[in-house]
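User: Okay, second chain of the day. Same drill as before: sequence in, structure tokens out.
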Amino acid sequence: MVNSKGYRARTRHTFQRGFRKHGTIKLSTYFTDFRLGDVVDVKANGAIHKGMPHKFYHGKTGVVWNISPQAIGVELNKQVRNRIVKKRIHVRVEHLKKSRSSLDFIARRARNEQLKRDAKKTGVKAVIKRQPIQPREGEIIKSQLTSIETIHAIPYELVA
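Assistant: Same drill. Structure tokens below.
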């Protein structure tokens, strides 16, 4: 059986459960609310075979476009040769989790809005542009030692 090309070919490590994550699935997985437009990560759970996405979509992030009683419709991007195609797949909730990829953006947007409001009150222009991380300030470290001790290797001796 050389070069098998089945649906789950070459997924020995891709679909395996994490360390100490085997056994029954947490109920919070089933109680997660998914709404239209939510950003979700597709992460196939090897313990549940029903509604499992194809291995290509494992690790991809998409947007919820449909909710049915058994599955969630997710729209993802797939690169096909020289173009990107929108793909719509249905996946069961066990293989999805809400994405945290946009949390930093949402927090930054809220912080910028607050800065703009404060700037409007004080009349000083707010700088909301992202700045690259600058190098740390230099400093001189004083030694705690009073004297410097030089250490040398002891010559090898033959013990008779």
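DSSP finds two helices and five strands in the chain.

User: Thanks, on to the next one.
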